[in-house]
Amino acid sequence: MKPGVSVATRKDGRSYYRGSITYSGKHISIGSFNAESDCTKAYDEARLLIKDSTITLDNLLQNIHTLSFEKCITLINFRDNGIYIKNPIYLQKSYFLYYLDKSTILKFDNDDLFYYSSHKIQNRGGHMFVNDYGMQYNILGRYGIKPYSVKGRDYQFANGDDTDFRYSNIVVVNKYHGVYKEEKKGKIIYAAKIHLNGDFIVGRYNNEATAAIAYNKAVDLCRARGMTKSFPINYITEYSPREYADVYTEIKISSHLYKFFRNKNFRDA
């Protein structure tokens, strides 16, 4: 049995093989395998990656066949940049690449390196998230983008690349739920809408935070009138609690919303 290959036993009594390699004083696991031959191949490929700098991210799949793709990224980054990171990250000069799989490569600013070094990104049907304290968090949340936000409407990628999550590339268009940016005669205004058997205009306002408060006030009216639908509520960051209360009290919402509830046949929708 080669160095770096050891036999272990599962709870059911079956044997399997664990591979490991030591590089620059770091003891690195390279995976578990059912067959000794596969573990040996993975160990040989790991040694080859470390020693042969001509094997790069571009030609990796032409040379490596048994070692896991993620482990290959980890080892190449360690070899080239001198930093061991357990997740499939490769460091660039001012940003880093995160390899979700062989064909999906995400870009992040170095400010996020510490976080993604210890939080693994998972992808389910295009929903990319990390597990943190037993909860799933969409990676867009780090940019203030809410789970219900729609790409192209509520946020955009400045360069058109939706794998580029560098902060300069993320443009938040609509920060708050139920608030939409509009342009009227060259002037920017913010429309507050709530979904009641279709989109219902609550009102149009001069700034985003005020529109968000108007939306919240409309939600409160819906609840006060007995509607049980679950509406998201906006957390307003621009105002102190006192300022929020003053705006909430003074702000006007569409009279049509009150008329809507005079119809006793309205239904939750």
Key terms for this structure?
3-stranded antiparallel sheet; 14 strands; 3 domains; alpha+beta; 269 residues; single chain; 28% strand; elongated
**Through-space gap between termini:** 66 Å
Low-confidence stretches: none
Radius of gyration over C-alpha positions, nearest whole angstrom: 27 Å
**How many alpha or pi helices?**
7
Strand content: 25-35%
Question: What integer is the average pLDDT?
Answer: 91
Strand order of the largest sheet: 1-2-3
**How many strands?**
14
What gross morphology would you assign? elongated
Number of domains: 3
Output the structural class: alpha+beta
State the major sheet.
3 strands, antiparallel
Helix content: 25-40%
Element order, helices and strands? EEEHHHEEEHEEEEEEEEHHH
Layout of secondary structure:
Blueprint: E1 5-9, E2 15-23, E3 26-33, H1 36-51, H2 60-63, H3 69-81, E4 89-91, E5 95-99, E6 105-109, H4 113-118, E7 122-124, E8 127-132, E9 135-138, E10 155-157, E11 170-172, E12 179-184, E13 187-195, E14 199-205, H5 208-224, H6 241-250, H7 255-262
Antiparallel strand pairs: 1-2, 2-3, 4-5, 5-6, 7-8, 8-9, 10-11, 12-13, 13-14
Helix pairs in contact: 1-3
Overview of this protein structure:
The protein is of the alpha+beta class and 269 residues long. It folds into three domains: 1-84, no CATH class; 85-173, no CATH class; 179-262, no CATH class. The protein is 28% helix and 28% strand. It has helices spanning 36-51, 60-63, 69-81, 113-118, 208-224, 241-250, 255-262; strands at residues 5-9, 15-23, 26-33, 89-91, 95-99, 105-109, 122-124, 127-132, 135-138, 155-157, 170-172, 179-184, 187-195, 199-205. A hairpin with a 2-residue loop joins strand 12 (179-184) and strand 13 (187-195). Helix 1 (36-51) runs parallel beside helix 3. The mean pLDDT is 91.
